[in-house]
């Protein structure tokens, strides 16, 4: 198992950043701290370390340009394992108005299903499916497809009785092809034989590739007021068109380092306030309808895009294109743009257009089957082979979401760094599937890790890891602080409450 520091070094190499910057980042190796058989603590430290590490390098570069010679003390950054895993559990710990968010629909969970004949090589002898029901239209669409009531009277027992009679793989496939959300359980061996799994395996190249799109001249970072010069991304403008956890986490990280992040909501889309109050921190918000039927909002969006540095979006591949904004159009409007995209299944393969969420990807690609077997071995002390039919077990946090968010923010900052040095617009790509492939490559943690007990809100609060600010809907937001600890030097981490809602002010332009 590579250490957190080695894992960070490997990520750094994929983006051609100066290796000297790594000497200022420390990731103490504390082993696995969550109840899991995977190295999620390493993933948390490395992805957050990469994200804050490139921010520190950008700040060093900007400060050196201001001095035009001479030296000054540079900040050292320490990402402790316990702080990183707390941040990976932020949506479970944060509170708005004193209340935690309701993250899951009452019908959410994993359900036994019929085995799909013939059984796949390496697949489980029993079968399970997992729907994603957080959005009302996804929940009602699934219930309607299954012939169950959509008036709120369907119970988990009713849903379970219906699903147990249906073949797992075929049912999940039908649901996904309707634009709804469900995956069937696979083990790692079964996933590796699947066409989408083979695409992920063949792609390689690390979880966060950068592509230079043109040969525009260098675009230096803007000059900023002296009272904000300790924020690495001060003066950078970001349009954030993302939802749920992974994409919004990337935008929040950029805002934490000083970027002006404008969170763009579509007024007709359903909201997730239980998540949004945490992931929208440090941002401003605006509602814009980008459908072709609303030329006024489209014109305002294009005006913002024209002077933005970053467009961050989590539509499915070709989703923004269907609204009339393919990447070529975006570059026509702004030829210096860093265009960052996040998807569930990647931009290639038969599943590229399918919807997906962290819990569904975990379920489909082998993590939950492997975690379930490891849990049984921990409890009973006996070897359990793949395909033995044990109950699947979810990871103890949304590790794919949070890793993807920080990795994407890392890639965006790497692109901004390269743009300032050698010029060019950039395309930054990440998917939950590529992140899952990366986490799997880190190997397995000892079974004894299942005895770990995550810190509670109260324990984190006692050691100063809970912040408080006035924010969403005018309520007090209590949140998990950003995990890097700054030692010496000047590096400011901005932690504020965020917008007061989905359209909290009339935004005519950028702050800076």
UniProtKB/TrEMBL annotation:
InterPro entries: CoA-transferase_III (IPR050509), CoA-Trfase_fam_III (IPR003673), CoA-Trfase_III_dom_1_sf (IPR023606). Residues 503-512 have a biased composition (Acidic residues). Residues 492-502 have a biased composition (Basic and acidic residues). GO terms for molecular function: catalytic activity. Pfam families: CoA_transf_3. Residues 492-512 are annotated as: Disordered. Belongs to the CoA-transferase III family. This is CoA-transferase family III. It comes from Microbotryum lychnidis-dioicae (strain p1A1 Lamole / MvSl-1064) (Anther smut fungus). The lineage of its organism: Eukaryota, Fungi, Dikarya, Basidiomycota, Pucciniomycotina.
């Amino acid at each position: 198992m590579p250490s957190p520091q080695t894992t960070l070094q490997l990520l750094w190499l994929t983006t051609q950043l100066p290796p000297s910057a790594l000497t200022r980042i420390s990731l103490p190796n504390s082993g696995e701290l969550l109840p899991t058989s995977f190295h999620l603590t390493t993933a948390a430290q490395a992805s957050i370390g990469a994200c804050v590490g490139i921010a520190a390098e950008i700040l060093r570069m900007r400060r050196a340009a201001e001095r035009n010679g001479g030296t000054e003390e540079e900040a050292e950054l320490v990402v402790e394992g316990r702080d990183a895993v707390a941040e990976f559990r932020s949506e479970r710990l944060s509170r708005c108005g004193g209340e935690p968010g309701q993250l899951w629909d009452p019908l959410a969970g994993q359900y036994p299903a019929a085995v799909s004949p013939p059984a796949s090589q390496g697949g489980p002898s029993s079968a399970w499916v997992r729907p994603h029901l957080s959005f009302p239209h996804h929940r009602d669409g699934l219930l309607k497809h299954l012939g169950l009531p959509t008036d709120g009277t369907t119970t988990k027992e009713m849903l379970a009785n219906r699903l147990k009679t249906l073949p797992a793989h075929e049912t999940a496939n039908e649901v996904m092809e309707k634009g709804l959300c469900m995956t069937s359980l696979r083990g790692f061996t079964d996933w590796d034989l699947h066409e989408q799994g083979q695409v992920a395996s063949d792609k390689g190249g690390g979880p966060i590739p950068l592509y230079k799109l043109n040969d525009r001249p260098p675009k230096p970072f803007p000059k900023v007021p002296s009272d904000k010069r300790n924020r690495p991304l001060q003066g950078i403008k970001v349009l954030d068109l993302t939802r749920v956890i992974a994409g919004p986490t990337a935008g929040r990280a950029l805002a934490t380092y000083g970027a002006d992040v404008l969170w763009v909501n579509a007024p007709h889309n359903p909201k997730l306030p239980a998540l949004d109050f945490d992931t929208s921190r440090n941002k401003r918000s605006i509602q814009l309808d980008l459908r072709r039927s609303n030329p006024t909002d489209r014109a305002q969006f294009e005006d913002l895009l024209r002077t933005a540095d970053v467009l961050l979006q989590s539509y499915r591949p070709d989703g923004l294109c269907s609204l009339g904004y393919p990447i070529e159009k975006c570059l026509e409007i702004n030829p210096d743009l860093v265009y960052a995209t996040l998807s569930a299944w990647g931009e290639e393969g038969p599943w590229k257009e399918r919807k997906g969420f962290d819990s569904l990807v975990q379920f489909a690609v082998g993590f939950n089957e492997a975690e379930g077997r490891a849990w049984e071995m921990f409890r009973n002390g006996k070897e359990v082979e793949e395909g033995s039919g044990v109950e699947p077990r979810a990871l103890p946090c949304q590790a794919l979401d949070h890793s993807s968010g920080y990795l994407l923010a890392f890639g965006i900052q790497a692109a901004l760094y390269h743009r300032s040095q050698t010029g060019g617009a950039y395309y930054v790509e990440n998917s939950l599937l590529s992140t899952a492939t990366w986490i799997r490559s880190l190997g397995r943690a000892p079974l004894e890790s299942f005895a770990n007990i995550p810190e509670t809100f109260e324990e984190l609060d006692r050691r100063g890891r809970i912040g408080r600010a006035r924010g969403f809907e005018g309520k007090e937001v209590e949140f998990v602080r950003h995990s890097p600890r700054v030692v010496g030097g000047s590096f400011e981490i901005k932690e504020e409450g965020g917008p007061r809602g989905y359209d909290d002010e009339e935004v005519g332009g950028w702050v800076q």
